[in-house]
Design a protein that fits this description.
The protein has 108 residues and is mostly beta strands. It contains one helix and four strands, in the order H-E-E-E-E.
Length: 108
Amino acid sequence: MYGFFSIAQFDTAKQINTDPYKLTYDEFLEKEEAGEDLTPYLEEQPKPKITSQARGHCQAGQPCPKSGYWFTLAKADSQAYFKQGDIMPDYPNNHWSEVIWQFDGEKG
């Protein structure tokens, strides 16, 4: 035998769990019977989405998320200044499937 204990002596059900998102089966049943909200303990928690606007992109027809200079590959020489809240213009019939504006900085 290696180490100070054998695998047979190690009971994971009695292990103290320091991860707030993991519970033993017995702990889960106790919380469920007590009527506690178990949402934080579920394995498949939805992760916050990083929207395209947060990454410096914005689709045509949507409000501009940040004041500054923006450009799109859907039209040559398209760089323009937009204020936050301005609706981003669309260029229909371009060779791209949709118009995506990309943030180019606060100064031109």
